[in-house]
Amino acid sequence: ETGVTQTPRHLVMGMTNKKSLKCEQHLGHNAMYWYKQSAKKPLELMFVYSLEERVENNSVPSRFSPECPNSSHLFLHLHTLQPEDSALYLCASSQGFTLAKNIQYFGAGTRLSVL
Amino acid sequence: GQQLNQSPQSMFIQEGEDVSMNCTSSSIFNTWLWYKQDPGEGPVLLIALYKAGELTSNGRLTAQFGITRKDSFLNISASIPSDVGIYFCAGQSGNQFYFGTGTSLTVIP
């Protein structure tokens, strides 16, 4: 148990569906992250929130929409996804965003399949 | 973005053997991390390294921050079946971490 909980663990959706991924951290951290993990590729950083403000957006398509209502919760809203978006989506949190405080702790991930 | 080369890509070893894997970069990093990921789970932090030359142990695991600050090594001694998984390195440049592609470890009982 890492203190970062993601739901759902598995999600199958059609290309016209709208769904949301949820992440909750119980570590008292101030920064939260979304990553995409595809087979044989390094983790791809998607979004970073620090103190509920988005500080990184790594050229992610607009069909992915993050939301951070408070420092403990992070959502990833999905709509009109493509089959190539199928992957493991990982949430992480860290104490802060700056050097020496941004060691990240990961959730178990949501395995997403887009049909 | 930064590229991390992690090797080997996969390893098949007998239980009890020692394991070595490494990560190299063309850029200098100021922190190196090693994570392990079990099937169906997220990465779990094993060891964090903050200074060039630093050598840190966590049980049977030992990791080193290379003197050039462009590489890091992870060693596992006397492997056991539960060491199976994918091991990732991560290097920090600025405020961002960059991840390797992972080393898949299989331990044969």
**Oligomerization category of the chains in this entry:** heterodimer
Instruction: Estimate the global geometry of chain A from the Cα principal axes.
Output: globular
Distance between the termini of chain B: 40 Å
Question: How large is the count of helical segments of chain B?
Answer: 0
Q: Helix amount of chain A, in percent? A: under 10%
- SSE order of chain A in H/E notation? EEEEEEEEEEE
The residue-averaged pLDDT of chain B reads 93
Strand residue percentage of chain B: over 45%
C-alpha end-to-end distance of chain A: 31 Å
Largest sheet: number of strands, sense, barrel closure of chain B: 6 strands, mixed
Taking pLDDT < 50 over at least 5 consecutive residues as the criterion, the unreliable ranges of chain B are: none
Strand content of chain A: over 45%
Helix content of chain B: under 10%
Give an account of the 3D structure.
With 115 residues, chain A is mostly beta strands. Chain A has strands at 4-7, 10-13, 18-25, 31-37, 44-50, 53-57, 64-70, 73-79, 87-94, 105-106, 110-114. Chain A is built from no helices and eleven strands. In chain A, strands 2, 4, 5, 6, 9, 10 and 11 form a seven-stranded mixed sheet that branches. In chain A, strands 1-3-8-7 form a four-stranded antiparallel sheet, with no helix packed on it. Chain A is globular, with a radius of gyration of 13 Å. In chain A, 37% of the residues are buried. The mean pLDDT of chain A is 91. Chain B is mainly beta. Chain B is globular, with a radius of gyration of 13 Å.
